[in-house]
Amino acid sequence: MNSFTFLNLNCFGLNERHRLIAEGKIPLVTYEWEKEKWGKRMRFGKYGLASGVSPSDLWPTVEEVEEEESFHLYRPFSEVMKEVKSSAEKRKSMLQRRMEELAKNESNYENRLKQYEASLVKVEEKKSEAEAKMEKRILEIQEYFGYRIDPKDPRFEVMFQQKEAEEKKATFLMKLCK
């Protein structure tokens, strides 16, 4: 025995196929799936010409080629190139339209900004009027109680509703008097 290895002793209990694979040799064809076309292709892909598989067996038959062509999965190169060119032109035109739109919007930017700032001022004025009215009511209610009261207090809410009712009544009477 020239080359002594543990694998030659088969002390690991491997079957013949696995022992050959572990030694880096080509195992014998033992299973039915290895005799099928896809099994032969795998074997040839792994071991090459040494696998004993004829490369002519690996090519698809005429029927298989016709079946694949019937699915129309593969298109002619010229057709694909036309699609690529048309999609590139479409992308280019969309980009051009977008750039024109941006240029138009950029020319209107100053006017839009002025309008926006003016609307903010109006909103602040409205908000400040409402806040001033609310603060006035809060001060009146606090005067009524004689101390500072939290607006979340239920007594505050009751008094607030009473004040609102009084103001509505006063405005209604003012309208009647006129």
From TrEMBL:
<dbReference type="Pfam" id="PF10147">
    <property type="entry name" value="CR6_interact"/>
</dbReference>
<keyword id="KW-0175">Coiled coil</keyword>
<dbReference type="InterPro" id="IPR018472">
    <property type="entry name" value="Ribosomal_mL64"/>
</dbReference>
<keyword id="KW-0539">Nucleus</keyword>
<dbReference type="GO" id="GO:1990904">
    <property type="term" value="C:ribonucleoprotein complex"/>
</dbReference>
<keyword id="KW-0496">Mitochondrion</keyword>
<dbReference type="GO" id="GO:0005739">
    <property type="term" value="C:mitochondrion"/>
</dbReference>
<keyword id="KW-0131">Cell cycle</keyword>
<dbReference type="GO" id="GO:0005634">
    <property type="term" value="C:nucleus"/>
</dbReference>
<keyword id="KW-0687">Ribonucleoprotein</keyword>
<protein>
    <recommendedName>
        <fullName>Large ribosomal subunit protein mL64</fullName>
    </recommendedName>
</protein>
<comment type="function">
    <text>Acts as a negative regulator of G1 to S cell cycle phase progression by inhibiting cyclin-dependent kinases. Inhibitory effects are additive with GADD45 proteins but also occur in the absence of GADD45 proteins. Acts as a repressor of the orphan nuclear receptor NR4A1 by inhibiting AB domain-mediated transcriptional activity. May be involved in the hormone-mediated regulation of NR4A1 transcriptional activity. May play a role in mitochondrial protein synthesis.</text>
</comment>
<comment type="similarity">
    <text>Belongs to the mitochondrion-specific ribosomal protein mL64 family.</text>
</comment>
<dbReference type="InterPro" id="IPR043035">
    <property type="entry name" value="Ribosomal_mL64_sf"/>
</dbReference>
<dbReference type="GO" id="GO:0005840">
    <property type="term" value="C:ribosome"/>
</dbReference>
<feature type="coiled-coil region">
    <location>
        <begin position="85"/>
        <end position="140"/>
    </location>
</feature>
<keyword id="KW-0689">Ribosomal protein</keyword>
